[in-house]
Amino acid sequence: MSTKLELTAWGSDISQVKIPLPNALKWVNSYLVEGSNGYTVIDPGQHTEDAVEAWQAAFAELNMKISDVEKVVLTHHHPDHYGLAGWFQEACDAPVYMSEIAHQHAQMMWGQGQRATDVIYRLFEQHGMDSDMLAEIRTHLESFVPFVSPQPEVRYIEGDTIQLGDRTWETILTNGHASGHLCFYAGATKEMIIGDQVLPQISPNISYVPGSDPQPLESFLTSLRHLSSYDVAIAYPGHRNPFQHVQGRIADLLVHHEERLLKFRELLTEPKTAYQCCVALFNSNKLTVHQLRFAMSETLAHLIELERRGHAREERLVDGTMIYRSV
Ligand SMILES: [Zn+2]
Ligand SMILES: [Zn+2]
């Protein structure tokens, strides 16, 4: 993979650093916020050799050393954002900040003796995924451990504000894509570090994961409506490039999920398992195992929302398989 450096300056103190990802998203955006005490790194990326090389190229380009990093701040716990935090901490002893809820989820997914792999495997099995696919899912889930190792010691982001570089930013809790996900807002300049909550061109994945948010789509739609009250001139997202049309994107995402809920509802004219719904809606034979896992979790999030709205009902068959039927 190319380690061509892609670094872009935004405003007076923010640089976007594209950190490569070994999947279809291609890269995650890290942001360096420059301040008089050093650099704040937002979402350092996923731990791969290519990612470390990209950081070394960025340090050389900016004429800085890793010891110039003052702190690492995470919008959420997903491996493509959180994975390199421990590597940074080992290399420069910087404190790592994230929300307490996001840290609990990082522990649940990748902590010592975690049970998330078994729990997700059983969930997908119960919801009708066939055994060949299930075997791939287990291998896939276990493959993430090196991407998030070593794990950092974490300090919790508390209160309504956080210092990034020399500026104070408002912290905004935006559940749904990830529990405990935070956006950061600078009201004076109308800038928002928006993580994966709103992305240009991409619909952020909404996953149901047992032990986490029981109604993630409802949480996501609620947090989108809350974000729509902010006046944003530019948003710095976790994927693709900084963008201006935040209100338009929020409106698009709200419509997108209503349309998708309608499609799931139509699929339930005949009772189906979540896996059958997933295959029908996402053209699953074209998906990688990574994409299929997210498609399945997103299908469950939508079926749960249909149930919450009184449009569907979950039932257990005698063999233990769960099916959904319309109400
Ligand atoms: Zn994410
Ligand atoms: Zn991401």
From TrEMBL:
Keyword hit for Phosphoprotein: no
Catalytic activity: 3',5'-cyclic CMP + H2O = CMP + H(+); 3',5'-cyclic UMP + H2O = UMP + H(+)
Keywords: Hydrolase
Keyword ATP-binding assigned: no
Residues of the Metallo-beta-lactamase domain: 27-239
InterPro entries in alphabetical order: B_lactamase-like_C (IPR048933), Metallo-B-lactamas (IPR001279), RibonucZ/Hydroxyglut_hydro (IPR036866), Sec-metab_biosynth-thioest (IPR050662), WH-like_DNA-bd_sf (IPR036388)
SUPFAM superfamilies cross-referenced by the UniProt entry: Metallo-hydrolase/oxidoreductase (SSF56281)
One of the record's GO molecular function terms: hydrolase activity
Record function comment: Counteracts the endogenous Pycsar antiviral defense system. Phosphodiesterase that enables metal-dependent hydrolysis of host cyclic nucleotide Pycsar defense signals such as cCMP and cUMP.
Protein's UniProt name: MBL fold metallo-hydrolase
